[in-house]
Request: fold
Amino acid sequence: MPEFFNFLKPKNELENQGGFPENHPYIPEELWIKCPVCKGVMLSSDLMDNHKVCPKCDYHFRIAARQRVDMTIDEDTFHEMDADMSSTNKIDFPDYEKKLKSAKLSSGENESVITGTGEICGEKTVIAVMNSQFMMGSMGTVTGEKITRAFEYATLHRLPVIIFTVSGGARMQEGILSLMQMAKTSGAVKLHSDAGLLYITVLTDPTTGGVTASFAMEGDIILSEPRALIGFAGPRVIEQTIRQKLPKDFQSAEFLLEKGFIDAVVQRKDMKTTLARLIRLHSSNDKEVSSDECL
Amino acid sequence: MSAYDHVTAARANDRPTSVDYISRIFGDTFFELHGDRRFADDKAVIGGIAEINGKPVTVIGLEKGRNLKERMDRNFGSAHPEGYRKALRLMKQAEKFHRPVICFVDTSGAYCGIGAEERGQGQAIAENLMEMMTLRTPVLSIFIGEGGSGGALALAVADEVWMLENAIYSVISPEGCASILWKDPSKTAEASECLKLTAQDLFKLGVIERIIREPRDVESRIFDSLKNLIAETFEKKQAIPPERLIELRYNRFRKF
Ligand SMILES: [Zn+2]
Reply:
């Protein structure tokens, strides 16, 4: 057995079957996941048990927005907002309908963000989670509208807002209307902030472009997952502009921490409790300290 | 004129730049102010105080430079974070002293480089968007040439946005769009059409309030008419209570 299999401890009948996908074509391939960083191979169930973090090298795999909601929000407390909103081709951009259709199919979602209310260890919050599987989390009009409505709802009901960002930036297919979402969302963040309410952003891999240059960087507290790529311009664009190679780890979460642009790098397994602690530190009502197992 | 003709015109080297507008509209009443008080003075952004019809106004412009030496000096109008922070400093100052703000926008985009990222280009733009939205004084942005994406928007969260007839405003450069769409950066003309980046298109989309005609003898006529328009507009906007002004500005962007 190659050494990268050593950490695997097959839990089920796979044990008796040896566990090599190439020797056992009847084992569905999806059961095996290869880490893109350390190239280690692991059972997808083990990866899931580990919050989709590579047990060998700590690589945080990208995860779907629904799964992020499940990981973060207490069971049965999530109420989605504006679930049915979906984009239209407002500037008649070539093939945009086709793009939207395939994004909906591949992600199983209507847009690049899920918004709603829920509880984190009993703390009520508004949450928005972006989805890299939907046109690389790009910001369309509906993305901006859902986020704006989430902030407006939070301002009205005096709730904190948590946003998990993942985005390639603006959505070219919506032209200038995509750019306007940066101003629209930033306005909603400002009114929420002026009302004295807490906004925490959690930057995940990758967060770039128009999202970085708007609500991602506007949190009272900005957290990030380890090694997430965070930047205004993408690394390839910078390399083309300056005609040189970028240093290693440039634009990583740790790099931004060092430069003073984020507050903390938080492991995925600790994210929920970290968010709960931070919300609790900002809640005005003197709730009794709960014996919540969550914290 | 095709969309691409507008792109070419907007980028033309002999086009008046922010310093031309400033000197022709405000004359020698303009007093330049430098620096962001945090890191440096970004020459891609020119700013200061001036008078219009005897009343003080804060002036900010993205400046490309008028010859090669100037263009190098001003980084071809692509600002670093310190440029956006300088702009915000001057806007906050304008708010404090109850004078309106005028921004001249002319940039292919915010600079993409190592220093820009290290000093938080995204954060600098984001902060401008947030703070401009609730600035308690009128803000007017005039696009005089190129309006490249977030780097232009960072000076355009305004009560009104005007565009010169041949100016453009786009979320991505036509070249960038073409290379993503067709893997062919030479299809710039097609991409220019798709992006709806001309003043006419943007007026139809409700993104701008006014198109400024560019007569052939640009130099002589455009500045005088602009000066009057700016003065009139500020007079009207300054009569609006700040809370109402902010509400109107919020709704201006909320509709998109
Ligand atoms: Zn790994």
Notes: The domain at 62-294 of chain A is CATH 3.90.226.10 (2-enoyl-CoA Hydratase; Chain A, domain 1). Chain A touches chain B through 49 residues (CB under 8 Å).
